[in-house]
């Protein structure tokens, strides 16, 4: 026990120095770290409850994805059958019950139809399962059922796209270091530090921003439209602000939002209303020019998220590939729409199912309170340990102080997040870390009482206590691990500090203090110790 | 320098003798805690019931009734108001809006903000949480699962590492600690939120820690003093570890006390729960779990066998006890 080879001493000191060094950038702040050339070193992230900011949990409505996929497949099947030569006549198409069904009019063409439909399915995932099951019922009807793997794949892709779109939209707000992470099958966690009012952010996320330009169906009977009936090839859409509240438009879109290259908020020169000016890409511009040329004098509808914003008349052909969307916009709503259009439409509807917003002032207050409480706690424990165990308490105090820095260092290395409960974890770790030293020191006291000499008592104290410390820490770690696995954000922050504290305190409280005690005994050879 | 000794050397308190009193008292308190939870219920935070929690900071301490009136007139449901820390900070809790639409939550927050700003210029929302029913159900499920897993996981560890009686005794006393903490929250009606679940898990971890230290000493003494009566042996073990138990509890209570007083309002419930848990955990370590070992009949098996085939790190521990 008293035998501490030089290499061991140096490696213990080296590890501790490393831990403390890693903690420095987090302690002196970002600006100072850069000044002293530590800018590139890893630092601890502050949780939103300390830095202030918003945490949003978004959930996608994935039934939408399934429905849209069915609609797309219907279009695909129709055009595939048209393209076949000879053309395959189909009818009685239905998308009821989540399946796509249609009837092949000529039974002789059934096999050809099934072949072509099979060609429309794809292998997904590692198993290579098809994304649709194709079966024939009643020897005339073809049924396409989406497979579980196919749906999962589609939802997965939609969620990836949605995450990208959300990221682009939030980036356009110009906030610092937002974190946007997919979670589980259908959720996205958005964390934006330092945001005063997340209303603007939520307004951005609430819109799917699916923009379409469609020709208005002027042949439709207004009475039918009011009752929601539209002629074949057309559909009825809500049109707030129009006399009937509804309007019939052609199903086929002239142009969609993914064909634009830019969108920005501007003011109308005549009435100073906020409008959104959009620029189409080459393909979109050409199509828009052609359609407007052919339909001068007729109205077209500008549709956002299946609701008509406006239905202006085409005065002249629009050739420049640019258009303006007007409606009842305020500057803010026009700007939000411009951002949404620029960042693409969301393939799914996102709902905010959890929101936690902390003002920057409260965050700063919490940090201050946390630092004050930790300092007082540390001082109280240090004084208490010293008056109880004297020199041995002093060693424990060095250990517990180093331990705080080492935990901070390891957290920086892991890029962990410090939350308010995490600060509580620190305070608690100060209390529990000295438990190891209490166990050791009490054991040394006991062994001294039994009449052992100093070296033997110290030796036995460390040896016997180590086993207990190990077992106690394992059980403590079990509860910490459970918190880490099942806890939500802030509780996780607590668990991280607790677990790191358990790991590092064994090193500082047992190994490091044993070294200090051993070195002291070796140098001074005391006959008696005051403990 | 004379050092502080909180517990005199060689105490010999007959804890085991008191066990029937302790069991009675413990059972009564635990039943009372359960009854409190059953009758008064827990004041569950928005984390677990869903809804909105707004923390508003006013320039001047406002009159609660006036604030309540302003909010009630909005028709957004029954508001629960509470002064939160400083006199000019008020926490406002509202039930989830009837519509599942997330925009409804925003609308409520905006409405309350506008109404309060009109009556109290300069007021700010320092914090607000909105939790939908779906999320709160998941949080409840995870919280309960975490506590159950922790209790069983650690009890299993105790049974595996020692003997089954240790696991069982630990399980009972941990369940007692958890119930007492819940009872405390039912009694005080302090808000029970996610942080409190973390506190309960930490209490479990700490309380086990305490019991393991004593169990470890009992096991050590069982090997050392093979013929000693189990009751005397447990008393000896508890007495031997008493200085450590008291010392550690006190250091942690010092740290938690600092957190309770200076750590800010947000951590107050957490610190209070932990502090209570430490007291309860220490009590159950001394009076419940070790005495329960007697009732469960630990060491009835021929202990000579144990010594004849020593295993583990303790195998060559010196035996200094009396041989007869």
TrEMBL record, chain A:
GO terms for molecular function: protein-transporting ATPase activity. Residues 236-348 form the SecDF P1 head subdomain domain. One of its GO terms (biological process) is intracellular protein transmembrane transport. The keyword Membrane applies. Residues 159-217 form the Protein translocase subunit SecDF P1 domain. GO terms for cellular component: plasma membrane. It holds the Pfam family Sec_GG. The keyword Protein transport applies. Residues 349-521 form the Protein export membrane protein SecD/SecF C-terminal domain. It is a multi-pass membrane protein. It is found in: Cell membrane. Keywords: Cell inner membrane, Cell membrane, Membrane, Protein transport, Translocation, Transmembrane, Transmembrane helix, Transport. The chain crosses the membrane at residues 367-387, 394-414, 420-440, 469-488, 494-521. Belongs to the SecD/SecF family. SecD subfamily. Part of the Sec protein translocase complex. Interacts with the SecYEG preprotein conducting channel. SecDF uses the proton motive force (PMF) to complete protein translocation after the ATP-dependent function of SecA. Forms a complex with SecF. Part of the essential Sec protein translocation apparatus which comprises SecA, SecYEG and auxiliary proteins SecDF-YajC and YidC. This is Protein translocase subunit SecD. It comes from Sphingomonas prati.
From TrEMBL, chain B:
GO terms for cellular component: plasma membrane. It is found in: Cell membrane. InterPro entries: SecD/SecF_arch_bac, SecD/SecF_bac, SecD/SecF_CS, SecD_SecF_C, SecD_SecF_C_bact, SecF_bac. The chain crosses the membrane at residues 20-39, 139-159, 166-188, 194-214, 246-264, 270-294. It is a multi-pass membrane protein. Residues 123-297 form the Protein export membrane protein SecD/SecF C-terminal domain. Its main location: membrane. GO terms for biological process: intracellular protein transmembrane transport; protein targeting; protein transport by the Sec complex. GO terms for molecular function: protein-transporting ATPase activity. Forms a complex with SecD. Part of the essential Sec protein translocation apparatus which comprises SecA, SecYEG and auxiliary proteins SecDF-YajC and YidC. This is Protein-export membrane protein SecF. It comes from Sphingomonas prati.
